[in-house]
Structures are given as structure tokens and as C-alpha cells.
Design goal:
By secondary structure, the protein is mainly β. The protein contains one helix and 28 strands. It is globular, with a radius of gyration of 20 Å. The N terminus is likely disordered. The protein binds calcium ion (4 copies).
Length: about 375
């Protein structure tokens, strides 16, 4: 509940800079007991359940521990789990963090030093005044800072194999060194979300952010390098993302377009996946979605020779709800499920595509309260043939 109260502060801030937010009515899916769309198309089952995790805010797939081979790493707000593909055994990693501050926390899986063993970055969804904390793979604190932006995005801006961080604090955009010290700060009034992405294809991440200029109906997309110099700048129409103001966004890969950064942004009643040239790749119906919502997304492969689908999770502070949606590459809504954020079965932002050993398609892993669900298309699920 505290998350929601603090989230109200975020919406108030957004309304202060964007006084003309469209009025969005509650989506019908909020009234549905289960999925409101695609109930027959996707099946789901519990992948992992452990109350000690807390709400699962990130799921990562990769070689993220000292053993050879890939793991699924699940980061909750209280602890993490490292799951080996084959045996489905896992080790629980409790964090050395104050549990009373978990209401605003989102923990992400990152390999900060590039040594093949993951670290955990505890951010805040919005600025609730707590520190950002980087923890090692055992959950012990490496550094903790209240002087850095409350929510950091990670990327390697200088090519040394270690990740730096970027974020927005007050009216500034800041680059933060691997050790948690601030490298530079630039005053950027009205900057929205800040992310790390390679905007020019040179293999190095840039710090990107959008500034909305309502008077000119424009949004300016800026990319800065490790020294803070502007290396990319583009001015788009305010409704660049066909309906979105695009100042609240997340970076999302999209396989048909190589490794180039794509932006997933909430628009009015839609979700838009766009490239940095301003082209809309997917525009999917998403009733109830507002431009101030938070969104996370990932492509999910259906197997060789098929187009992936886009999985997204949206947090609506207005409706105190989260929405899981699956769109196909044409933007058709395949599946939709809404949950109340106050409910024990609330959906959390942890989203990952994972290819089970021996299968030719990926399944979608979705975070919950002390659990992870596995979603897959009904015609590809082993359980559906019984
Ligand atoms: Ca491993
Ligand atoms: Ca590491
Ligand atoms: Ca670096
Ligand atoms: Ca670059």
C-alpha cells in the first residue's frame, strides 16, 4: 500500500509538468477474475514459489554465476534465487537490506564488473528517499548511496567491461561510476525517464533521456557519452510515438531489428514500441494505459521461422493495478490479464523470455508476490496434451 501512496506522489509530479493528461477510463480487464483476453491461447503454471523472495521485480537468464552454463536468476525485493536449468534446484540469497524500506524497492540483476557472477541493484520505483544499494551475489552490500539518482539504469559507457549507471535526480541527469560515485551531473529541467542504450551502434552505451516541450509539441531525444557530451539529439513531434509523450519509457530489444535500442512507451490506451529514428514498430491496443504508467517489456520467441511476440507489464498508479499483455508483431492483443497491486496475486515487473532445455521455443516468466509464473502458448505447452 505504501508503494501506492508514494506512487501518487509520482503522478502528481507528472501532472505538474504535463497538466493536460488525457482522461483514461478503467479498462474492462480490471473487472475480470482471470485473463480478459486470450484465456484459451496461453496457459500458465507456477515456475517457482518462495515467500522469502518478496515481490519479484526482475528475472534474468544467462551465465550469471560461477558455474558453467546458464541460470535463471530471480530478484525479489527481499531476496534472490539462482535456478539451474536442468535440476530446477535453487539457492535462496537473502539481502542484507532493511525490510521496512521494501515498499518502494525494485531489485535488478546486473553483472556490474563483468566477471560472470551477478550483482543485485536495489533501486526505487520513484524517489521515496531511500538509498540505492548495490549488493554482491551473496546479498551483501557493496555500496549504498543516497546521493545518486533513486533509480539507476546500467550500461558500459566506456568499454572497460564494467557497468556504469545513469539516472535522473531532481532536475539533473547523472552518470554514476561502477563504485557508486557521481561522475558528472547535468542540469536538465523536465527530463523524464533516463536509460542506457547504444544509440549510435558503436558498442558503447549512451545515457538517453527525453525532454517534452509541450509549447512546441515536441519531444527532444538526447544521448550523452561517458564525458557528458551530446552525441545524439533528435527532435520529434510530441506525439512521436503515435499517441505517447514518450517521456516515460523503457529500453526493449526487438530481434527483427538487430541489437539496436528500441523504446517501449505507454501511450493513451496503447503501448508503442518505437525505434530511435521515430519509427513505430508495434502499436498495440492497451485499454486503460496512460502516459504516466510504468512499463517493462521483452520479446518472446515462438520458435524457428516464426515472429516473436511482445510481452509487457504495465503499472498503473491511477488504477492501482498491473497489466500483463502479450501482443503479436502486428500489434494485435493476444492476451491480457489485470491484477490489483493490493492483491497477493499481483503481477510484478519481473519479465523474462526463457528457452527450457530441449525445447525450440521460449516461455515467458513473470514475477509475482513470492513466486514466478511460467506462461506459454497452449499449443506448445507439454501440459496441454493431457
Ligand atoms: Ca552459470
Ligand atoms: Ca559480477
Ligand atoms: Ca564501463
Ligand atoms: Ca554508442
Amino acid at each position: 500500500m505504501l508503494l501506492l501512496l508514494a506512487g501518487g506522489g509520482f503522478v502528481a509530479y507528472k501532472q505538474a509538468i504535463e497538466p493536460n493528461l488525457p482522461v483514461i477510463s478503467p479498462p474492462p480487464s480490471l473487472e475480470a477474475e482471470g485473463p480478459s483476453t486470450g484465456e484459451d491461447l496461453f496457459v500458465h503454471a507456477i515456475f517457482l514459489q518462495d515467500r522469502r523472495l518478496g515481490g519479484v521485480s526482475d528475472i534474468a537468464v544467462g551465465d550469471l554465476d560461477h558455474r558453467a552454463g546458464t541460470e535463471v536468476v530471480v530478484a525479489g525485493v527481499h531476496g534472490a534465487a539462482v535456478i539451474e536449468d536442468e535440476r530446477r534446484k535453487y539457492a535462496l540469497i537473502p539481502y542484507a537490506l532493511d525490510p521496512d524500506r521494501d515498499y518502494a524497492r525494485l531489485v535488478e540483476v546486473v553483472d556490474v564488473d563483468g566477471d560472470g557472477e551477478c550483482e543485485f541493484l536495489a533501486n526505487e520505483l520513484h524517489d521515496a528517499g531511500g538509498p540505492v544499494v548495490l549488493m554482491d551475489h551473496t546479498g551483501q552490500v557493496i555500496w549504498e548511496s543516497g546521493d545518486v539518482p533513486p533509480s539507476l539504469s546500467a550500461g558500459d559507457v566506456d568499454g572497460d567491461g564494467e557497468l556504469e549507471f545513469a539516472g535522473r535526480i531532481d532536475q539533473s541527469v547523472a552518470l554514476v561510476e561502477t563504485d557508486g560515485t557521481v561522475v558528472w551531473r547535468r542540469e536538465i529541467p523536465h527530463a523524464g525517464s533516463v536509460a542506457m542504450a547504444d544509440v549510435d551502434g558503436d558498442g558503447l552505451a549512451e545515457i538517453i533521456y527525453f525532454v517534452v516541450k509541450p509549447e512546441e509539441a515536441q519531444v527532444v531525444v538526447t544521448g550523452r557519452d561517458d564525458s557528458g557530451e551530446v552525441v545524439y539529439e533528435a527532435t520529434r513531434k510530441q506525439h512521436w510515438a503515435t499517441g505517447g509523450f514518450a517521456d516515460s519509457f523503457t529500453v526493449c530489444p526487438w530481434p527483427e531489428h538487430g541489437e539496436a535500442a528500441h523504446i517501449l512507451t505507454p501511450a493513451s490506451r496503447h503501448l508503442v514500441l518505437a525505434n530511435l529514428e521515430g519509427g513505430t514498430v508495434i502499436r498495440g491496443s492497451a485499454p486503460g494505459t496512460n502516459i504516466v504508467d510504468y512499463v517493462w517489456g521483452t520479446p518472446v520467441s515462438r520458435g524457428p521461422g516464426t515472429e516473436p511476440y511482445l510481452a509487457s507489464l504495465t503499472y498503473s498508479m491511477k488504477f492501482e493495478a498491473s497489466f500483463l499483455r502479450l501482443h503479436d508483431a502486428e500489434g494485435s492483443l493476444l492476451f491480457e490479464r489485470a491484477t490489483s497491486l493490493n492483491d497477493d496475486d499481483a503481477l510484478w515487473p519481473g519479465l523474462a523470455a526463457w528457452q527450457p532445455p530441449g525445447e525450440d521455443h521460449e516461455v515467458l516468466l513473470v514475477g509475482g508476490n513470492g513466486k514466478v509464473w511460467r506462461y506459454e502458448m497452449a499449443n506448445s505447452a507439454p501440459t496441454s496434451t493431457q
